[in-house]
Amino acid sequence: MKDQILLNLDNPGQLEKLYRTDKPSFKRAFKTLYPELQDNVLANFWNERLNFAGEEISWGSSKELTFVIVASLISGFIAKIPSMFQINEDFFYPRNIGFVVFPALMAFFFWKNKMHKRNILVLAGATLAGLIYINLLPDVQTSDTLVLACIHLALFLWSLLGFAFVGDRSNLSEKRLGFLKYNGDLVVMTGLILIAGGILTAITINLFLLIGIKIDEFYFQNIGVFGLAAAPIVGTYLTQTNPQLVGKVSPVIAKIFSPLVLVMLVIYLVAMIYSGKDPYNDREFLLLFNALLIGVMAIIFFSVAETTKTSRGQAEVWVIFLLSVVTIAVNGIALSAILFRISEWGITPNRAAVLGSNTLILINLLLVAIQIYKVMTRKKDIMEVGKTIGSYLPVYFVWTIIVTFVFPLIFGFK
């Protein structure tokens, strides 16, 4: 994108075309180039344009609002299927919870990115295949492969959403990194929507209670279900039409929490040594240890996504590097514990899934740490770290396919 901007710096029409083709990538590339282009009148104009933050919230067109309302209603009705058709909730929700929201979000990006019909059919076909497959699996309550398939199916659908977000465009690594940033922004926006919805729910229920009408059961079974299903859809719509809403919040969260998590992780590792607890002989502790690892890795990736978006100081790069190193150490402990348990008690679906996941995460963290080190020694640009993360995401997608669709067959649905 940088080269394209430089080549078309004297061509306003072509610059506008580049901007409309991929706005996030254009903004990041232009911000990197602008210090060298301040003597150019057109560059100054684009700098003012890109840094102008409108004060009013855009609610989009009537077609967009109609789409969001319809998608939210459909998602709500999907969530209500067990109660409407007398289906066992314990059977339905673990298998189908991902289909409540992800197809609607994919449809939004199909429409927004104007994807080619062939690509839409491929993603829709993959979603349908997942829907049919997961509901045809034997209903064995003690099946570890069923639990793993349900968990990884949600990650599979999340990966398909990533493909829809990227669309048919070039600059795949940058778009994939943009997808990670979108997830961070969506968490912030959806959290705010749910907090506001929770306050409205409490006020509504108590107001009716004051006049002697108890509506809590009806409210949660109907309005509450639709509200929960609609929250991420509305959150996505708001973050895409008004990026300024959380554009300044997400970097602050990344800047504050990265050093705090680093300190917490170091203290936790020291405390673990003195507590006598270890993941080698305690299965529940190993599960929590892996959950901690995934959470910290997500924070690293989110911090990198925010760091590549704007120019950052060396101190913040150091924090991300140290956090990566400590997380690699945590991953090493978890991986050795898994190998120990396999050598002692043999292979199981859960151990195989955790072993594969931790190995992939370790490789990813090592690649990221190496790139960050090169940034610190001035050998690489911070954007290279983002490209490394973006280019590795398809590896996780392949792993979700293996665990979801292959593990039940390999282990005989055990």
From TrEMBL:
The chain crosses the membrane at residues 65-85, 91-111, 118-134, 146-166, 186-213, 219-240, 252-274, 286-305, 317-340, 352-373, 393-413. The keyword Membrane applies. The keyword Membrane applies. This is DUF4153 domain-containing protein. It comes from Dyadobacter psychrophilus. It comes from the Bacteria. Keywords: Membrane, Transmembrane, Transmembrane helix.
